[in-house]
Amino acid sequence: IVLRDRGLQGTSSAASLTEADPFVAAVPVLVGVAAGLVVVRVLPLPLAGLARVAGLRRDLVPVLALRRATRAGAGATILLVLLATAPVGGFAAATVAHLDRAAADVAWQDVGAPFRLDGPNGPLPARFDRAALAGATAVAGAYRTSATVGLGGPAIDTLAVDAGDYQAVVAGTPGDPGLPAELFQPATGAVPVILSTAATTGPSAIDPSVPFELIIDGLRVPARVVAVRDTFPSLPVGGRFVVLDRGQLQ
């Protein structure tokens, strides 16, 4: 249970992730002990059956070998061998699975979709028809810029996405951020935004319960927070950012 929940619920067998988890560290050894005990108990059963079958033969070597293997003294040898090999195999399998899952999570966080097209020198050309791409089943546009909180306020990373189209792109994938319902509705008054947790702390913290103003490319945009997130696909983890619907912004 601890192995499955580790890194997902922020807890461990020591109730804290600030230091190494002693239970997780002992898992390879415990797996070896468990495998050894199971095999020591189960192995004599098929060996006894094979010994009876070998007893029907005229030669003595198979009979003597199998009967010797079923004696109690052979169990300790099996246990020692499994104690040496099972932890290595278990640790290697867990490490490969963890690295593969971590790489996939990082890729989805960094790209934000199965594929992403970026302009080498700023936005994509206005004549670019993303819907005409061969093999594309769903497409969504996005605009990323740096805004300020109020006149002369601190800078904040701003991502404007086509919420409805983006939901169609990432729905059912590991990269689905679960956009709030407010981003799909007509905006009345202040524009609904997703605010990063990092932007709610520090000297220039934004109070999520109070509407504020964004200065985006020289335009004054009233905004209200509808969700606070630690991360959002394609934006730096731990950064200060806001996410809003591009249609509502327009």
Fold and architecture overview:
By secondary structure, the protein is α/β, with parallel strands linked by helices. The chain is 38% helix and 17% strand. It has seven helices and six strands, in the order H-H-H-H-H-E-E-H-E-E-E-E-H. Strands 1-2-6-3-5-4 form a six-stranded mixed beta barrel. Helix 2 crosses helix 5. It is elongated, with a radius of gyration of 30 Å. The relative contact order is 0.10. The model has no long low-confidence stretch (mean pLDDT 82).
Write the layout of secondary structure elements.
Layout: H1 2-5, H2 22-42, H3 44-54, H4 61-69, H5 73-111, E1 142-149, E2 155-161, H6 163-170, E3 191-196, E4 212-216, E5 219-229, E6 241-245, H7 246-249
Parallel strand pairs: 2-6, 3-5
Antiparallel strand pairs: 1-2, 1-4, 3-6, 4-5
Helix pairs in contact: 2-5, 3-4
